[in-house]
Amino acid sequence: MSDTMKGFISDLTKAFSTGVSYMMPTVVVGGICLALSLAGGDATAGKGMVVTNPFLQNLGIIGSAGFSMMIPVLSGYIAYSLAGKPGITPGMITGFIANTPIGENHVQTGFLGAMLMGILCGFLARWVKKWKVGDTVKTIMPILIIPIVTTVIISMVYIYILVGPIGIAMSWLITILSGMQGGSALVLGLILGAMAAFDMGGPVNKTATAFTLALMAEGIYGPNGAYRIAVAVPPLGIALSTFISRRKWGADDRRMGSSAAFMGLIGITEGAIPFAVKSLKTVVPSIMIGSAVGAGLGMIHGVECMVPHGGLIVIAAVNKAPLWYAVDMAVGVIVTAICLHLLRPNIEKEQ
């Protein structure tokens, strides 16, 4: 491997680590506040968890704000690691755009899009910093020229080049999924589970959500039950892994395990994102397998969830096979933890 490639990989590794370390507090604050808020809510058919207590509603606002900040902070500090302070603003703005529905198909690329935006902003801002300019212009480069040039170029690349193909792909996925009912129930469950875990709230996850909501509108609740099992598996499986496979995780990750468990119980798949960013090749396959197993079992057992929310917190809204809802989720969690144990090296070896 050439020195240039080694340097590129080193820069990316450092950038992802930096982005995660700054993102973690927003995940913890947002996740715990949202968990406490939803814990006091009631499962309502067609509406998910409804919180009526004013104090808990305000906690929910805080939690939602934390989750809204999570993706832009990740992107912003990835760019910061690559380009310094001039990269923060472009990274955060483009990360926000990546996490916002855009275009006719309402494309939202989530954390994967934000990671890409952070990388592109970081490298472009780093290049713009090297421009040879006069002393007068040099003083405004970090606060004006670099942020504006970087933000506008990367945002336009995303909006005009990336969003269209992604939207077409999402529409195609919905069409394919719509034809997989009846005898394909198990296969449908496996696919929905894998989609739920693949990007943890990103476009693939949102496509599965849209599909299950569309079926709910037609009075078909089985796929929603399977999907709601799947969304809770990634954070719960990782939390279990940090507890039983302690040599596979660093001290920071083990501390984050408790927060991930909170979020898994209330069906917040994004609780797995900080772990996935650090190690996509071990975390993403593990959670996809676990979620697919849990959702596939849910389809076999005829689990039906009446609300558009997941996790154990909505078990009261499972009108068919609520016991299997919990059991299938537990199986998916255990499968995820086993996969992580097999795929991840001991932390001493990794270092």
UniProtKB/TrEMBL annotation:
One of its GO terms (cellular component) is plasma membrane. Pfam families: PTS_EIIC. InterPro entries: Bacterial_PTS_Sugar_Transport, PTS_EIIC, PTS_EIIC_2, PTS_IIC_fruc. The keyword Ribosomal protein does not apply. GO terms for molecular function: carbohydrate:proton symporter activity; protein-N(PI)-phosphohistidine-sugar phosphotransferase activity; protein-phosphocysteine-sugar phosphotransferase activity. PROSITE patterns: PTS_EIIC_TYPE_2 (PS51104). The chain crosses the membrane at residues 20-39, 59-80, 110-128, 140-163, 169-192, 227-244, 256-277, 283-303, 323-343. NCBIfam families: PTS_IIC_fructo (TIGR01427). PANTHER family: FRUCTOSE-LIKE PERMEASE, FRUCTOSE-LIKE PTS SYSTEM EIIBC COMPONENT-RELATED. This is PTS system IIC component (Fru family). It comes from Pectinatus cerevisiiphilus.
